[in-house]
Amino acid sequence: MAASKMLLATTYIVFLTSLAPPCLAMLNFTLPPHHPNPDLVARDVQRRVNESFSMRRQMVELNQRDHTCTTGNPIDDCWSCDPNWHLDRQRLADCGIGFGQYALGGKGGQIYVVTDSSDHDAVNPKPGTLRHAVIQTEPLWIIFSANMLIRLKQELIFNSYKTVDGRGANVHIIGGGCITLQYISNVIIHNVHIHHCVQSGETNVRSSPTHFGYRSKSDGDGISIFGSRDVWVDHCTLSRCTDGLIDVVVGSTGISITNNYFSHHNEVMLLGHSDDFLPDSAMQVTIAFNHFGEKLVQRMPRCRRGYIHVVNNDFTQWEMYAIGGSGNPTINSQGNRYVAPFDGNAKEVTKRVESEDQDWKEWNWRSEGDIMLNGAFFIASGGGVEVKYEKAYNDV
């Protein structure tokens, strides 16, 4: 983690631990809002997935594929079946599932068309550029006039209530940063390619029309979600960044990461700042319909605290492990396909990171309806549940 982020988070931890109990009780009201019953959200996701699959099955049996559009994916069923989707782009905001389903993005705002792929000045961005669009204060639905390669000079710092909608264009975002969501809310990032993100910083960067400030060196994440809520990342590809592809840290919650393709990376996704950072206990993240593809090593995701719903993903490659954690996160794995590597020492889907057996046996990690292939196995744990191996079936 970059020095500026570490200092800020550490200061917050020191502040928390220095307060007397009555003050801490008052401070609890300012901690990140979260759903009081996350299992209800998980069941709603499964209900919507099952309905979509059921409808698709019925249409196939009735040979009505030419008369209706059902993909088996409730997100895509919601908007992509309409051949005139481009006439009502903002309908997408009603299609989210899981904990990030309330992300409004730029719904209700004006359409902003990015016409210029340049990024010459991080303090005074040129109108028509992506940087100029994302820093505005009003809700905006941001689209692109043509295919673009946007080579960032510095972190692309968003303001709240923004949708970046790459449908209809082939948009690649690379370079310094890349995308930073810091202490904001209601962002949708859809259908863009984010890759080759590198460290940047040690200069001024604008974050709103009225504010710019000095940024220390960034991590080089693809997308950094820091102290933010109601964020949905959908149908993007992410690969080859300096640090993580997606990091969700420092009290972020209400996050959905869906329909993305991850490849060519070591530490893919980090959820949670540290084991001791208490506000991340309110973190709630849905990870659904993603493809974890070629040349991935670990952290799909790596979780600290919070409630993480991993549902209907395809894990086709890892070198060390797929899902890891520490600090007692809840991990609910449902309907995923795990294909283990040929390395006999890396068949386990799960990894308790730097944790003793007596500590993690009470953590709530469960597997339901997962398909385990090539010897993959998931070690479940939790109160009232014996530690067990979810043995492979349909094994090859």
Automatic annotation (TrEMBL):
Enzyme class: lyase
MF terms in GO: metal ion binding; pectate lyase activity
Functional pathway: Glycan metabolism; pectin degradation; 2-dehydro-3-deoxy-D-gluconate from pectin: step 2/5
Swiss-Prot/TrEMBL catalytic activity: Eliminative cleavage of (1->4)-alpha-D-galacturonan to give oligosaccharides with 4-deoxy-alpha-D-galact-4-enuronosyl groups at their non-reducing ends
GO biological process, one term: pectin catabolic process
Cofactor, free-text remark: Binds 1 Ca(2+) ion. Required for its activity.
Signal sequence region: 1-25
Cofactor dependency: Ca(2+)
Domain Pectate lyase: 147-344
Pfam families: Pectate_lyase_4
Record carries keyword Metal-binding: yes
Superkingdom assignment: Eukaryota
Keywords: Calcium, Lyase, Metal-binding, Signal
Record EC number: 4.2.2.2
Family per similarity comment: Belongs to the polysaccharide lyase 1 family.
Protein known as: Pectate lyase
Organism: Kalanchoe fedtschenkoi (Lavender scallops)
Taxonomic lineage: Eukaryota, Viridiplantae, Streptophyta, Embryophyta, Tracheophyta
